[in-house]
Amino acid sequence: MSAAAGFREWLLQKPRVEVAKRLGEYPVFIVAAQGGGIYAANNAARFLARLQDLCPAFRQHLFAISGVSGGSVGSTIFAAALRAQTAPLDSNAVDGKTCPKIADFLAGVGRVQDIDAPGPVEQRVASVLATDFLSPLVAGFLFTDFTQMFSPFPIPAFDRARFLEYTLENAGDRILGSQKGNGDQSNLLRADYQSHWAPGNNMPALLFNTTDAGSGKRAVISPFDFDPLHPKDTDLCVLAAVERTGAGTDQTVKSHSLHIPLSTAAFTSARFPWVTPAATVSVRNDCITSHPQARLVDGGYVENSGIETALDLVEKLNAIKGTSDAPRFRIYLLSLVSGQFGDHGSFMFGDLMEPVRALLSTRTSRTYIALNHATSIDRRPDPEVTQSVQRFPTFGRTDITGLFYSLPLGWTLS
């Protein structure tokens, strides 16, 4: 399934069509969650959970989350908590009070404490984030993975990254143990990645950004394809369970790499050598490599905000505007990021350190270049909007930087 086809089917669900008719257009949200260790995971998961608790209809408008590293893990935790509170698509249909707590506060009825109090989704998220992820990783490195170094054959169960995945999956069981009501009682984190999203299941599509260590390209784990042609020279390669046919090897591609648990897919985006090993995946994807296997590492090596993939997705989705069967819609891109372009620091050790400084600076600057690219969305003319119409900006940036110390996100404890 292509992104455009999946989005059209998602948009044509009856409750969404009815909302689009009443409002004149359907608001669609795409979120980009920046990488940066457990702090980024904590902030992404809590922000999305708080927004869902305040605005129960948010899940009906959230189409996709583009995550990188910790942002991928955080969005996965949010999705697992959201799955435990499964609701029919039309149960939270817009009725003039999409965000009841905020509406009551603005009307002078509610208190600010009501907005600040964690709701059921955020409480589930917090229970997972309270898990100790470091100890299992260290234990796996010192014992099983260290032992594997002396084995001539790889032993997948000894991979220290699996210890992280098992820990996350077990933490997901606590969500189900505390679940009350009619929510789904299956652990989404243990389920096959491909099963987490469908146009009618009322869940966001999780896009996990990784880096192909061999070519340096973005390799995005996605439930749908972006470009059916999938040319070799593109900078975006999609690992989706799709089969393309046509003339030439560039169009004959079948991906087998996605039959993995959701927890594995999320941590593939967060594999930062030497902390965790690169993920070896079996692929037949000419965009990535002509070899049968590829090595995937942390998506932050290419671009750490997830914005570039989100912008590519927005472009594909906007292509269906004006089609006869699709209702009018407007896409809002929300970015959870931190920091800005760095100023010159110390020039200690002179020429000896300049190559290292340049490599590290250019890696982080690509995030802010992508953010500047995203801010230009609102400056582009929209033929469907007249100058007299008041509109919200279609790009919003939410900073998750700490208030006290200016530290790199991955160095910050949650």
TrEMBL record:
Superkingdom, taxonomy of origin: Bacteria
InterPro entries per the UniProt record, alphabetical: Acyl_Trfase/lysoPLipase (IPR016035)
Protein name: PNPLA domain-containing protein
Organism encoding this protein: Bradyrhizobium barranii subsp. barranii
